[in-house]
Amino acid sequence: MAQAAAASAREILTRLHEVMARRLPAQSKLNSVVQTIGEVLNSEVCSIYLLREGVLELYATRGLSQDAVHVTKLALGEGLVGTIAANVETLNLDEAEMHPAFAYRPETGEEAFHSFAGVPIIRRERAVGVLAVQHSDPRRYAEVEIEALQTVAMVLSELIANADLVDSTGAASSRPQPTSASHARGFKLVEGMAAGVAVFHQPRITIEHTVAEDTEAERHRVYAAFDKMREQIDRMASQAEFGVGGEHDEILATYRMFAYDEGWSRRINEAIDSGLTAEAAIERVQQRTRQRMREIDDPLLRDRMHDLEDLANRLLRIVSGQLGTAAQMGLRQDSILIARNMGPAELLEYDRRRLKGVILEEGSLTAHVTIVARAMGVPVLGRVRDVRRLIAEGDMLLLDTAEESLFIRPTPATEEAFSAKLALSQKRRASFARLKGEAPVTVDGHRVTVMVNAGLRDDLAALDLTGADGIGLFRTEFQFLVSATLPQREAQRRLYKDVLDAAGDRPVTFRTVDIGGDKALPYLNHDEDGDEENPAMGWRALRLALDRDGLMKAQARALIEAGAGKTLNIMFPMVSEPWEFDEARALFEAQRAWLVARGKKVPVDIRYGAMLEVPALAEVLDILLPKLDFLSIGTNDLTQFLFAADRAHPRLALRYDWLSPSILRFLKRVADACHAAEVPVGVCGEMGGRPLEAMALIGLGIDRLSITPAAVGPIKAMVRSLQRDALVETVEALLKDGNVPIREALTAWASEHSVELS
Questions:
Q1: Rounded CA gap, 207 and 282, in Å?
Q2: Residue 144 belongs to a domain
Q3: Contact 229, 317 (CB under 8 A)
Q4: Across the 758 residues of the chain, what is the mean pLDDT of every consecutive 10-residue run?
Q5: What angle do the packed helices 661-676 and 724-737 form, to 10 degrees?
Q6: Is 587 in the same domain as 468?
């Protein structure tokens, strides 16, 4: 099939090359193009629509009425042609009229044709036109025909751009004036504040020639570029600054795997076979990758596709000999990097003394670039729309990811306010840092345990920096999320041992792998019955691990081996009924017995706990608590389940208050049951990291918190200013009343009693 597609495309490109070489007006060239394509593909209709003055204009056709040329016009999103351009997607229909976007244009005479296929003509990642074919018989066009159309559309973009037939793709007319201040919002990926000038990571590479004169010469150029690119990646991996054995090794190993992927190089070779130059072939395969990225719902798979696009950009720069990234040019001053997305290796190339922040049009919390940026200490704001329209190279930017805000060309007043906040933030961080050696003890002598949540080796430094009591939640799934394949047991053991060694005498609670739901793994078929309609309440966490007990057995053995000679704390996520805890504990005990029988060293003690995230578990605590060494309440999932509200939904994320009577009464009931059974109870989740909410939890009798490292200082300051016994009485009274707004009442109480809530 690939050979047939290449043959069709090669025949068209050969004839197009001749057309483009002639001294003819652009209109005559396009008329010849539609005639050529129609003949080679044996299609009755071939039409070219170009984007002019914001609308798609029929510019040339074979088969439709010539009277419609320059008359038929469609807005972006209107009709089949407008849909293709707006979505930058391909349509292949056996009955065009059945598509909901179909818009009939009587002047074209298209009523005689049933089938329709159209592909976008792309210039600088934007559709500047549409190439369409039609046929009188109802049929879907073969994949080889679509491949040929897409290849030809790429060559057409060069022709029409050189002839200046379409709207400018630079969007200069829509860019705000350099003097106008602007504000944009995004999604916090790595917290922090930064100020610097805008630098675009990816200067656009212009492909001068798309049709090859000598196919073999182009192939050799690509081979040489592949060799050079792989050398760069290998060198970069060996020089990474994060030490050995970390998640970054796994990230770069995945990246290197893509660089050596034979399937990718084969697809580029096939594009060269169709008659494209080396640059055009790489771009052609890259366009297919972008198309796949638009169709992928799985965020983790999209992240991996971004890694592949990062490599394609690198390969394209090498083969073209054109200017590299901003990193290779060097940053001359404090800078904030702008990119649609980027791979981890490219971020590592930047001068960390000058790189102050990163802004991404896309991005996710589990993306490789986010994990590397977190390790580098670089704040990142993702999902910022229209950055190329809003920002010009060299613009002054102020970035505050905690507020999810970006200030573009700020006014002097905004700069002054930002500088004051930054200075205050630095001053407060310094004051919190001074508390790292102080215990979180209330004014009336009650000790509160303050621990940190972690998931990466780099998070371990927070123990010493914050003076936390230990790690109350180590998310073991991060190692699975950054790996291209299921992590081997030995790799897991090394990570867990490193964590325990770094913690020393401080306790570490390992949560068994919590994958599934919104943390799907591409190498694990997590839903055999199709997409889950409600993944948060689906096949995930302990449910998945018990079904895939081979995965859990490997993790259990790795944890037990890593904890040899120490006390090991194991916590099972999303326990819904006591039997699930029983099965999980039995699985661990079987692995311990297996190791003991073979003379292996094991932990001196294994303490087993459960996470209470599913409300149903609260109804069977009398059965479960006698079996537990500790209970941890996961407030993030618990809240969404109690309120039947998706916490990722933008309209619901802030609607339900953690300090509502329903949440606090539920937590009080759980805390009272644990105290009666003499089972330690704590909270791990965002609720415990907010001073006012943490104060309320202490008022409920919960004195163990596991929170983000950044929250340890503020929580310690709050605890050390608190009269705990007086607070308990106040919270009990508020819960009995039920009519008083609890958030306002607790805020007022804190103010009256000089509680530190900053």
A1: 10
A2: yes
A3: no
A4: 58 73 80 87 90 89 93 92 89 91 90 92 82 91 82 79 59 42 85 88 66 81 84 68 50 69 80 80 76 59 63 78 63 87 75 88 71 76 82 88 89 86 75 80 95 81 87 84 71 91 94 67 50 56 76 91 95 91 94 94 96 93 95 88 67 69 93 96 88 95 90 91 94 87 93 89
A5: 120
A6: yes
Give me the helices (H) in 24-177, please: 26-40, 79-87, 143-162
Question: What is the predicted pLDDT for the residue at 147?
Answer: 80
pTM of the entire predicted model: 0.58
CA distance 683 to 618: 15
Query: 139 and 102 in one domain?
Result: yes
> Do residue 439 and residue 417 come from a single domain?
no
Asked if 606 and 462 sit in the same domain, the reply is yes
In a domain? residue 526: no
- Single residue among 381, 404, 423 that ends a domain in this structure: 423
Which residues have a Cβ under 8 Å from the Cβ of 342 and sit 6 or more positions away?
201, 202, 306, 310, 358, 360, 369
Q: Which of 757, 729, 754 is nearest to 743 (CA)?
A: 757
Q: In the block, which residue shows the tokens 């792989």?
A: 230
Residue pair 698/647 in contact by the 8 Å Cβ criterion = no
Domain that holds residue 475: 434-481+488-517+542-752
- Does 186 share its domain with 221? no
- As for how many domains the chain has, the answer is 4
Does residue 372 contact residue 248 with C-beta atoms inside 8 Å? yes
